From TrEMBL:
<dbReference type="Pfam" id="PF00291">
    <property type="entry name" value="PALP"/>
</dbReference>
<dbReference type="InterPro" id="IPR001926">
    <property type="entry name" value="TrpB-like_PALP"/>
</dbReference>
<dbReference type="GO" id="GO:0003941">
    <property type="term" value="F:L-serine ammonia-lyase activity"/>
</dbReference>
<keyword id="KW-0456">Lyase</keyword>
<dbReference type="InterPro" id="IPR023214">
    <property type="entry name" value="HAD_sf"/>
</dbReference>
<dbReference type="InterPro" id="IPR006353">
    <property type="entry name" value="HAD-SF_hydro_IIA_CECR5"/>
</dbReference>
<dbReference type="GO" id="GO:0070179">
    <property type="term" value="P:D-serine biosynthetic process"/>
</dbReference>
<dbReference type="InterPro" id="IPR036052">
    <property type="entry name" value="TrpB-like_PALP_sf"/>
</dbReference>
<dbReference type="GO" id="GO:0018114">
    <property type="term" value="F:threonine racemase activity"/>
</dbReference>
<keyword id="KW-0663">Pyridoxal phosphate</keyword>
<comment type="similarity">
    <text>Belongs to the serine/threonine dehydratase family.</text>
</comment>
<dbReference type="Pfam" id="PF13344">
    <property type="entry name" value="Hydrolase_6"/>
</dbReference>
<feature type="domain" description="Tryptophan synthase beta chain-like PALP">
    <location>
        <begin position="435"/>
        <end position="728"/>
    </location>
</feature>
<dbReference type="GO" id="GO:0030170">
    <property type="term" value="F:pyridoxal phosphate binding"/>
</dbReference>
<dbReference type="GO" id="GO:0005524">
    <property type="term" value="F:ATP binding"/>
</dbReference>
<dbReference type="GO" id="GO:0008721">
    <property type="term" value="F:D-serine ammonia-lyase activity"/>
</dbReference>
<dbReference type="InterPro" id="IPR006357">
    <property type="entry name" value="HAD-SF_hydro_IIA"/>
</dbReference>
Length: 774
């Protein structure tokens, strides 16, 4: 099978992973990787007109994507004035979608949670036209009245009580027409919508502003009267005040000062009414009235929204709601003061679009900083993790017209069940880090091809392809895993400012530099514990990347003890920081990140006409070998994967040979990047996905290093020379190549990973000069 045909199956691979895993009875389930909340006006619609990108967005969320997965989402708006069912039907019609009632959260939807509190009590509801908000309130189960109901009651000349200043003396009298609101006379149309009531004996217990008030003067006057108890019999009012000096609750549902919709300029909203009302109330009574605020950006609204999303996720995954693990949630909105501020406060991710309230052309930065900005909702979706994968796979699918291997999904399902990482995790990592890392080049050498062919004695030619990770940022492949780990941490904490993250590790070499530089590149802090015998150049490099370096005794126990001490000190000195350990290799995020080089390698080798049959990498802790084996075997079933190790540090070789983990004890090699034992997470992957581990002597490694330096003109570290040494000198490898060539009856294309180029010049020259010409 061609590598190209495997590369293009990435899109089918991910789809099949989801489908196959979901079909396993009692097996693990793949949850949607993200959930969304969308503002409506300014994000999905402008007034009643859909924003074009909204159509594709809704289709993708409803499952029309390469994953075939429905993504939980809600519409979270500060608008309202109608029942949620009606709004859902209207949205469905506008967006050619099937929006459920449960997916519509309006500013007043949370009022449903207050129904038990006000059961059997009258409430005054404001906003909208006529009795529209009363119908909404009644649908929730509230005993609701409107300001027009009070006007209608006034015009029936009901005897009421008038409180006279501080004395609260009262007398009954026939209310004069229009005495409550002198400038508003009920029309016949308005009167037809009113509800009869007697507000002297039926006191109002809460004023709830459901929607934007239309008649500010009328509503302000009546609310002031209600809050002062002016319509209630004095004895009843005094009884109410015994329990609470402010016996009438005041609740606002939408704090938005401005909104825009289809208007060319922002318009005043309910927030404007709140400001005006409190100013009037204070001018009359010397203080503002205490109130409860719902809607965006207030936490209660976001907590309510999260409950709705959790219920959706339980339905999608067919699990009990109590067993749902929430993925990251992203709010996509147009208003920094409500959408972005609320999402940030709730710990969600936030994306600010430029199709509504916020206008980037003013040059004024948003008052609340979003996680991302985008021109519209379509571009916003492309910035998400799900879109990273969909975009990546779509590009590959368009580039190559290829066949699907039927065993890919089964292999991937097995991977998700047994191992710390899977090929889909590698692909997710590739989408995550691709804009942060170098796509390192591949090289060939006719001389190296001839040397490798002569060494095999198989009768078939060998062609080599070198993946030059020595040209990666910080000079080694380690930057991939470190970057993926940091970005994964940030994504798992939506809304976290990178400057509030501190990553910690202990390392003597490339991982220390990689983590330090990766942290600096995103604005995070790094604390690195290094052994006192680390080369001064490496310590200086780590410090140069902005990390705080702590030196310790050069033994593992001291390194670990010092690291945990540093963590505790960081938590005390920087309590606001999120402190995370990023191990050098035994971590799913590291494994997945390192595996991305294999995805690139497969594609690049195909592009130059040498599709890989074998891929060989150095092995120390096993992060690179395990990640590359997952990627290579997942994308190209039948490819052979080989680990290369110094004979003087042969723990991986022995572990693989005996099928039992063997620790590294007193390793004797100048390959200082390969001294560690394989990890508890990396070894099981290696055992099941790698075809062979072969070794080379120090002299053989030195000769391979000399060849690369002198003939290929590449600066590589000793560890990077081990794979070529195995290809040229390992009899075990030669026997394996002979078998594989015989099975295929053709020569092999062997991919060699040059893992890094961080080496002291004096050390490199000593190694190179230690071997004679041969």
């Amino acid at each position: 099978m061609h590598v190209l045909s495997v590369l293009d199956t990435i899109w089918m691979l991910i789809q099949n992973i989801y489908i196959a895993v979901r079909s396993l009875h009692g097996g693990p389930r793949r949850r949607p990787p993200v959930a969304f909340a969308f503002d409506i006006d300014g994000v999905l619609l402008r007034g009643h007109t859909p924003i074009p990108a909204a159509f594709e967005t809704i289709k993708m969320l409803e499952g029309q994507n390469e994953l075939g997965v429905k993504i939980p989402f809600i519409t979270l708006t500060n608008g309202g004035g109608v029942v949620e069912d009606a709004r859902a039907k209207e949205l469905s019609s506008q967006l050619n979608a099937n929006i459920k009632t449960s997916q519509v959260i309006q500013a007043h939807t949370i009022i449903k949670s207050l129904v038990p509190k006000y059961k059997g009590k009258a409430v005054l509801v404001l906003g909208g036209i006529g009795d529209s908000v009363r119908r909404v309130a009644e649908s929730y189960g509230l005993d609701a009245y409107t300001p027009l109901d009070i006007l209608a009651w006034e015009s029936t000349f009901v005897s009421i009580v008038l409180h006279m200043g501080a004395q609260h003396s009262s007398f009954s009298y026939h209310l004069l027409q229009n005495s409550i609101s002198p400038f508003h006379t009920l029309s016949e149309e308005e009167r037809s919508t009113t509800r009869p009531g007697n507000f002297s004996t039926t006191p109002i217990h809460a004023v709830i502003v459901f929607h934007d008030p239309r008649n500010w003067l009328l509503d302000t006057q009546i609310v002031c009267d209600v809050l002062q108890g002016r319509y209630v019999e004095s004895s009843l009012w005094e009884e109410m005040k015994k329990a609470n000096p402010n016996p009438v609750d005041l609740i606002f549902c939408n704090p938005d000062l401005i909104w825009r919709a289809a208007f060319p300029q922002p318009r005043l909203g309910q927030g404007g009414f709140i400001t005006a009302f409190q100013a009037v109330y204070q001018a009359q009574f010397g203080k503002t009235y205490p109130f409860t605020q719902y809607g965006k950006p207030y936490k209660d609204t976001y907590d309510w929204a999260k409950v709705v999303l959790r219920n959706q996720l339980a339905e999608v995954e067919q699990v009990d709601v109590n067993h749902v693990e929430m993925p990251p949630i992203y709010m996509i909105g147009d208003n920094p003061a409500s959408d972005i501020a609320g999402a940030n406060g709730a710990g969600w991710g936030s994306i600010l679009v430029h199709t509504g309230v916020y206008d980037p052309t003013t040059g004024i930065p948003p008052a609340h900083t979003p996680t991302h900005q985008a021109k519209d909702v379509g571009e916003a979706m492309k910035s998400m993790k799900l879109r990273y994968t969909l975009t990546l796979t779509s590009i590959l699918k368009l580039r190559y017209k290829l066949d699907l291997q039927s065993n890919i999904s089964a292999m991937s399902v097995e991977a998700t069940r047994k191992y710390a990482a899977s090929v889909s995790d590698v692909l997710m990592a590739m989408g995550m880090i691709r804009s942060h890392v170098h796509r390192t080049p591949v090289m060939t050498s006719k001389t190296a091809d001839q040397l490798a062919t002569d060494a095999q004695h198989s009768g078939f030619p060998v062609q080599l392809v070198f993946k030059c990770e020595n040209l990666q940022k910080i000079g080694a492949f380690k930057f991939r895993g470190a970057t993926n780990a940091i970005l994964q941490i940030l994504e798992s904490h939506p809304g976290l400012d990178p400057s509030s993250l501190t990553v910690v590790t202990h390392s003597s070499g490339n991982h220390a530099q990689a983590l330090a530089y990766a942290a600096r590149s995103v604005g995070a802090r790094a604390c690195i514990v290094m052994p006192s015998n680390a080369t001064p150049a490496k310590v200086a490099a780590v410090r140069g990347y902005g990390a705080l370096v702590t030196l310790c005794e050069p033994v593992l126990t001291a390194r670990e003890e010092t690291m945990y001490r540093v963590i505790e000190e960081e938590k005390v000195s920087h309590p606001e920081q999120l402190v995370e350990i990023v191990p050098p290799y035994d971590d799913p995020r590291i494994i997945s990140g390192q595996g991305t080089l294999a995805v690139e390698f497969l594609e690049q080798a195909e592009q130059i006409g040498r599709p890989l049959d074998v891929i060989i990498t150095p092995v120390g802790g096993g992060g690179m070998l395990s990640g590359c084996s997952l990627a290579a075997t997942g994308l190209k079933p039948g490819i052979k994967v080989v680990g290369a190790e110094p004979a003087g540090s042969g723990d991986a070789y022995e572990s693989f040979r005996t099928k039992n983990w063997v620790p590294s004890v007193n390793p004797q090699t100048f390959c200082d990047g390969l001294l560690t034992s394989t990890g508890k997470l990396t070894f099981p992957i290696i055992l099941d996905h790698v075809d062979a581990i072969c070794t080379a002597t120090e002299e053989q490694i030195a000769r391979a290093m000399k060849f690369v330096w002198e003939r290929m003109k590449l600066v590589i570290e000793p560890s990077s020379a081990v794979p070529l040494a195995v290809v040229l000198y390992s009899s075990e490898f030669h026997e394996a190549v002979a078998r594989w060539s015989a099975d295929r009856q053709t020569g092999l294309n062997i991919g060699i990973v040059i893992s890094g180029g961080n080496v002291n010049m004096q050390t490199a020259l000593e190694i190179i000069n230690s071997v004679s010409e041969k």
